[in-house]
Amino acid sequence: MTSDSLNGLKAEWFGNIRADLLAGLVVALALIPEAIAFSIIAGVDPKIGLYASFSIAVVTAIAGGRPGMISAATAATAVLMVTLVRDHGLQYLLAATVLAGLLQIGAGFLKLGGVMRFVSRSVMTGFVNALAILIFMAQLPELVGVTWLTYVMVAAGLAIIYLFPRITTAIPSPLVTIIVLTALTLAFGLDVRSVGDMGELPDTLPVFLIPDIPLTFETLKIIFPVSAAVAAVGLLESLMTAQIVDDLTDTPSDKNRECIGQGLANTATGFIGGMAGCAMIGQSMINVKSGGRGRLSCFAAGVFLLFLIVVLGDLVAKIPMPALVAIMIMVSIGTFSWSSLTDLRLHPTSSSIVMLATVATTVFTHNLAIGVLTGVLLSGVFFAGKIAQIFGVRSELSADGRERVYAIEGQLFFASADEFTKSFDFNEALERVVIDVSGAHIWDISSVAALDSVILKFRREGAEVEIIGMNQASETLMDKLAVHDKPGAIDKLMEH
Question: Are strands 432-442 and 403-412 parallel, antiparallel or unpaired?
Fold first, then answer.
């Protein structure tokens, strides 16, 4: 290892020790109720989600590609496992978690982390806004059908979160909120819901185990669809979150390494009795806003989490839920891109539609992967439409009226192929036709087929056709797919 890489590693781990440790503690406290809630969603014991959050946080801190990003058990992956747990039980969930991790490791080695470049800024904004809305909606059960005291405590928590930094930023204000509201609850015996009401906390360390399932093809058929969905959703959410943390901290990340890190974490988690997870944008936002930047913050969050539930479980169980609700509301407010609302009037209509569609689909389905996929597909459609619009064909007839030169400009692909074909007059009596494609590029089988059709139709009318100016990439595609010079091509055209 070179001195530069050693210094880089040292900076990632120990360049921000105090802030990373404090941020890790805040994250660990916020992770506990969420991990319990996600376990309940998946239909398993709370310790499954808690052990998973510990394992995933520690492993991704070491092997992941984005320092400062928090990974743990998540709702996005939990909802995908509900049917598997209900129909086949916990052991199949653990096996699916291991397989999902192996698929993610494979994705990393295949360098699929680069797919993020296909996600537009509008989709990213929609993803962030939808996540902010979902984070806020997740707090509503704690705010409905409760006493007035709960609202007072949430308001007090928000006041501490936003006002305490004016006094000092030495201690993260979310941590102060948890300490103060817990102290008040215990001192005055306030009757509010606590972390302990969410579910029983485990009091033992996780142990290594191999999922107790039959190693048959039938088992693979059961777990593979779930594993593939978990792997895809987990990577998508992790890569999106990594991009957001990149922007927040103005530092780069290694997306392919993150894929491998997520895979190693899930594989390891399945072997200690935990459920699959991925990066958590809400907890990552808490970490960054609390000063966490390095790998130590995520590692500390995992270690603190295990320490809190195993050693200090009785005390942690007494933390009032209003304190954690206040923190998550702060995260929701901070996550939402408020400027995107005013930008709706300024940005192109297509960009605004993509952003709003991403938000609406994500909130309606409660599935970030479906929302992002919708946004990416819409972005692709709008992009194809724009490129097709800048396509054009000019033509010029020779002085003797026997030859016409068609000059093609723009991108020739499936969306512009029809317009390309309509630009030619096949009824004109010509001896020679020249198609100049020096200002165009041929992209796909649709454009090759369109050019084939044009050439063959002119030849059918008795005209000689010449193509000039074709670039090497287009020529390679034509040589491979074109049929206009093959025997019987005109006869086949007549058949159609």
Answer: parallel
